[in-house]
Amino acid sequence: KAGVTQTPRYLIKTRGQQVTLSCSPISGHRSVSWYQQTPGQGLQFLFEYFSETQRNKGNFPGRFSGRQFSNSRSEMNVSTLELGDSALYLCASNAGGTDTQYFGPGTRLTVL
Amino acid sequence: TQLLEQSPQFLSIQEGENLTVYCNSSSVFSSLQWYRQEPGEGPVLLVTVVTGGEVKKLKRLTFQFGDARKDSSLHITAAQTGDTGLYLCAGSMEYGNKLVFGAGTILRVKS
Predict the structure, then answer these.
(1) Least confident of A23-27, A99-103, B28-32, B71-75
(2) Which helix (H) or strand (E) holds B61?
(3) Which residues on chain B are in Cβ contact (under 8 Å) with A23?
(4) Separation CA A74–CA A24 (nearest Å)
(5) How confident is the model at residue A2 (pLDDT cuts 50, 70, 90)?
(6) How many Å separate Cα A62 from the centre of its chain?
């Protein structure tokens, strides 16, 4: 079974721009969660989607948004980028019935 | 304040030594997971523990979940250079899949 895939792997943007990141979960998994990882704050939960509905949300500003499609693929969007948004953005998928999550390789976002 | 306190933050040991990483909280978790992460990659799941008092072994790694489901430990026996990496504990405490992560332990095993 293929693992979680994320595209792109690397991205460089400038302040004020917006960005869209994509995640394809493991086949058959209906839950997709997004996390931000930075050296200072570690791994922080952004949001979770299950069957195209946002089921959980972390403490991030409204500039961070996401969605999930009927095939379970998910995208997250960050608008009006700030320098502090530079991070590794990780996507994790879950079958929906357990707590076990499987992470993708991440998208490294650099904001200049 | 970190909901999951992980210690130590850094660990540098010689190959063949034993080590233990701790993950503590004042909150109860429905399950706790341990991950290992290499630089520039996503965390890779090592184990999930769900029952208080549970002990799981994965070759030289032993994982324990506290009786009250508030803490966990990871013990590595006879560490090898290939064990080098960032070890993360993560707890699940509510409906859905929101994981709370510890700050991580950077392990360096020297030959």
Answers:
(1) A99-103
(2) strand B61-65
(3) none
(4) 7
(5) confident
(6) 14
Q: Would the pLDDT of A70 be above 70?
A: yes
Give the strand order in the sheet containing B61-65: B5-7, B19-24, B71-76, B61-65, B55-58
End-to-end, the C-alpha distance of chain B in Å comes to: 36
Contact A58, A47 (CB under 8 A): yes
Rounded to whole angstroms, the Cα distance separating A31 from A92 reads 8
More confident residue, B40 or A106: A106
Sheet bearing A19-24, strands edge to edge: A5-7, A19-24, A74-78, A64-68
Backbone angles phi, psi at A52, to 5 degrees: 70, 10
CB atoms within 10 A of CB B71: 20
Contacts A33 to B, Cβ<8 Å: 97-99
Nearest Cα residue in chain A from B42: A105
Quick check: helix, strand or coil at residue B82?
A: helix
* Residues in chain A within 8 Å Cβ distance of B45: 100-103
Please count the other Cβ atoms lying within 10 Å of the Cβ belonging to residue B18: 11
- Please, are residues A50 and A30 in contact by the beta-carbon 8 Å criterion? yes
- Smallest Cα distance from B14 to chain A, Å: 26
Cross-chain Cβ contact A106/B41 below 8 Å = yes
* pLDDT given at position B30: 87
